[in-house]
Amino acid sequence: MKISIIIKLFLAVLAVCNAVMLMQAIAMRISVQKGFFGYLNDQGRQSIEEVLPRVAAFYRRHGGWDGLHDNIRLWIETVRPPPPKDTNIRLSTADQTGAGIRMGLLDEHYARIVGNPMVDARSIRQPVVVDGKTVGWVAMVPFEQALAPGEARFLSEQLRMLWIIAAASVVVVALFTYLITRTGLRRVHNLAQAAHALAAGDYALRIEAGPRDELGALAQDFNHMAQALEHNERARRTFMANISHELRTPLAVIRAEVEAIQDGINPPTAESLGVIHQEVGQLGKLIGDLHDLSLTDIGGQAYQRVPIDLGMVLNTTVASMQRRFEGAGLRLHAAIQEGPLLALGDESRLQQLFTNLLENSLRYTDAGGEVRIRCARRATAIQIHIEDGPPGVAQEKVEHLFERFYRVEESRNRASGGSGLGLAICRNIVQAHDGSIRAAPSPLGGLHIFIELPPLP
């Protein structure tokens, strides 16, 4: 039979509470019997020690116990202490609990001589020693044994009441335990149902966090996870739609041109073949970018990270693209700090990063504009700035630039030859190198890309 977690938790807490209450009841019973009674019996032993010298003196005077047998009056006179000088003296605890009444005398063979008829060899006793010989025993009935029937019933009633209180406490604890576990586990049950719904694909589901405790924090984490999954699912669908659209466009152009040639509508001229070649190139670039994106998505697993000089890699990239910038009528200025700028990274991936960023500036900066590159080491990072001229990007669109297939639908559009994957690839490369990349409007009127990479110590 399957037992729910609420029943298991309830039984566990209830068992612990029962164990605690049982231990308390046993401890209180032991405390009464061993502690309180023990204290009173210890007071009785002190009374016996006070009586011993007077009983021994009686034995010396009379040469034995003759005349003391069952002579209660003489026994009382023998053990009674001398009258105190201070009339305001208070009775001791032993006197208040009837120590004198519980006391009696045994001979050397433990036979009762006088005193309380209940004294015997099992009673509390001290030897009466005369001339180095034990001639008898002053004994006292233990307090718990001397209790009157009424007193015994009172004590028994108190112990019975103690057990009733313990049982009532267990019932109250059980009730509160049930209410608490029911409330807490209801929230756990809601979380479990929400997890099942999330696993079934309901990413829009959110649950109420409730009180600010561990379960509340878990509910908030669940909502964040659901939100992230919803975003990822939306991004996946958008990504698939974008891929199909980006692939369909060049394929449609190529198919139209090929069918026109096959039907004899257009002759296979250099112009028609050039259109096909251009679309094949665009298709090949898109497939290449998708391949690069898939490689950068797996991050450091596909990288060979070794110590490299970022300044040298950046200088090499700038030198390789200088003529293209001049041919496009753009001014390219680089201010790279002298000396090695050492970092741990994959040289080919970092060169791809810088090439993609410069290609982006080359493609989207108006003729006559300017592109500036700055690179220097600071206290905790190597900082790289790439700024270009107009056209710019609106502030509300800057944060979306690193999303896949995102384009600013103004001057920076598909007509410029971009696939919309370049900056997403750049972000993956930087993150795989434990760095950060962000974009902002440039003082030159275009876009400012800011990169930070961790240096070698």
Q: How would you portray this structure in words?
A:
Helix content is about 55%, strand content about 15%. The radius of gyration is 50 Å and the shape is elongated. By secondary structure, the protein is of the alpha+beta class. A hairpin with a 2-residue loop joins β3 and β4 (about 135-140). It contains 10 helices and 11 strands. α1 packs antiparallel against α4 and α7 runs parallel beside α8. A 5-stranded mixed β-sheet has the order 6-8-9-11-10, with helices on one face. A 4-stranded antiparallel β-sheet has the order 2-1-4-3.
Total DSSP E strands: 11
User: Going across the major beta sheet, what is the strand order?
Assistant: 6-8-9-11-10
Give the number of helices.
Answer: 10
* Overall geometry: elongated
Provide the low-confidence segments as ranges.
87-97, 410-417
Would you summarize the structure shown here?
By secondary structure, this protein is of the alpha+beta class. The protein is 54% helix and 14% strand.
